[in-house]
Amino acid sequence: MTAAARIIINEVKGYHNFLKFMIVLVALAVLASAVRFIFGLGVTTNMNDTYPWGLWISFDVVTAVPLAAGAFTLGAIVHCFHIKKLEPLVRPAIVTGFLGYSLVCIGLLLDLGQPHKGWHTLVYWNVHSPMFEVSMCVMAYTTVLFLEFLSPVCEKFGYHMPLRVLRWLEMPLVIAAASISTLHQSSLGTFFLIAVDKLHNLWYNPLLPLQFWMSAIFTGMSIIILEATMVHRYLGQPDESELLEVLTKIIPWVLGAYLTVKIAALAFLSHGPLFDRPVLLALFLVEVVVGLIIPMIMFMKESNREDSRMQLRGASLIIFGVVLNRFNVSMFGMIQPDQVIYFPSVIESLVTIGIIAGHILFFVLLAKYFPIFEHHPETVDYSLPDRFHQVEGHEHQQVKGVEA
Amino acid sequence: MSGAITDFSKQKTFLIDTTKCTGCRGCQVACKQWNQLGAENTSFFSGEGYQNPPAMSEHTFTRIKFKDYQKNGQNEFAFYKEMCMHCNEPACASVCPVGAFVKTAEGPVIYNAGRCIGCRFCMIACPFGIPKYEWSKAFPLVKKCTGCYSRVKEGMQPACATTCPTAISYGSRSEMIAEAERRLKARPKHYYPAIYGKEEAGGTSVIYLTHQPLDELGFKPVTTRPLPSYTWQALRLVPGIFLTMGGGLSLISWFNHRKERIKQEEAFKNSKVTPETTDPEIKEEQR
Questions:
Q1: Do A58 and A343 contact (CB within 8 A), yes or no?
Q2: 8 Å CB contact of A193 and B230
Q3: Cα–Cα separations (whole angstroms), residue A35 to A53, A111, A277, B229
Q4: ipTM score
Q5: Whole-number Å distance between alpha carbons of A318 and B64
Q6: Fold observed for domain B2-226
Q7: Is B168 helix (H, G, I), strand (E, B) or coil?
Q8: A392 has pLDDT over 60
Q9: Total structural domains in chain A?
Q10: For the whole model, what pTM was predicted?
Q11: Quick one: closest CA in B to A191, which residue?
């Protein structure tokens, strides 16, 4: 055993037991995906010709994408709308988004029948396909998130030249992130516009893409609340509930607008019977009441907005509502009355659990080794390093830069 | 995409008169032979009725469905040939991210396995539930009726149409619709008064005549609007939304940054501090 390996093993041994458990879950998911590739989709999953899309599309793609929307939402709030005091939340949000999108890509590759031909979307364009649109956007946005994520990496290793480039790119990247996200978050809704006569009328209406986009915005903010609260509780970071209060002030407005669009679309734009399937109706009501109306009322009261625990509860309800909404649209609402009910197989579940565990694990590890929370933009020196001391009398500035 | 084709009247079309079908299933056998599809291990009555195999699959591109019904106190059978409808504006072709499905000028909707990435969106999109997946394989592809494009291209008729002794006619769409209308007119009591596929999903290259109500035979009630238009009405806005969003956010940030800068400059002016005295280095040099 080499010395390097021993160092790594000792390092891992020092981790909290929760992290070790996460590592086990991720390892199980890796094994499960190996099984999927060896034995095939049909044997290892419960998908079939009636259910061409299962848990992997419903959760790993359709649900995970809005759950990773925090980065673009917060980027726009902080940099475009200039609410600068939320700056400390941006970096963790970018890390969450970058991990989320990377895992979406992994989930998608597992689900594809021909993952080795995934690059075909770049070559054989079909602009009429929402799937083409989403895959291009996801690739572009993952790149954007990667570039944004490079900042803490460069800071960690003291690469000043790339930092200057990245800082110069900051605004264009933030705007690109918001525009690209608008496109693919809404196009995920466009997916289901083709399922005429399949998706139940409670969800099928032409405004589905708009609804997907709007719900991505408040989900992104809720995820930031969840993530910041968890980081405060378990990673010993400062309490940011004062900053989160700004988000809880915005959320009820977005929720209200979304609810208005949702109800208006239901009332005026849907065709056919709405109340013919009791189970679907119940799912719809839970989604709307628990996931939208209750958190909206909660956050309309100022004492709730300020209370860290109520912030977490409201955000969790919203996240629950969005997860249920995405499952309703992509799975439950698509089930026809006489169909057998689909239930994910062990392999499918292991992979999805592993993806969630992987997200938590990699977030904690990145937070451990990279300056994600210690970001104070005003103290970072972006000047070019003067290695040959050509400029006299400026050394002390660089020392300051390295320290920051 | 099929955007280039606008006139479908010349395209080859199946006219399937289910009142003339005898249920011999010669079409099923011919289809398996021409497309070299494997046999399936099935048992009788494994599906809804007499039909066998119980469902369409990667090995079965077409199948005769049986429907029991009573007529004048006697048991009767109605048959329905299940197959790809070869839509004029196919949903599968519009949703495929890599354009693996193509509506050919001859009529059949064909599938290019070399392009397919296996996302199964076509299976979600198809209103008739036609594309099937090779679930048994580690790297599966989609399988569906080819409309015997390899035969049609060479001037022959599809395998099932060639084999069928009674029910299938094959010709240009306008001719087949005219023939169907002629039959409906000649024997109005014999037929259910509808041509399935004339308007369904914006028109298809397979049209049916029946003597039973369509829904009782298992024909899916499908919208008459071409399916690609449902997604295109949202997707066509994509470039506009991208530019509006990008431009709008750029403007907003420019304004906000400008406001900030002006505020700082004002504060600096009002503070009455001269630039020289703020920099300790320059002060040192001056001394």
A1: no
A2: yes
A3: 19, 13, 38, 40
A4: 0.87
A5: 49
A6: Alpha-Beta Plaits (3.30.70)
A7: strand
A8: no
A9: 2
A10: 0.89
A11: B231
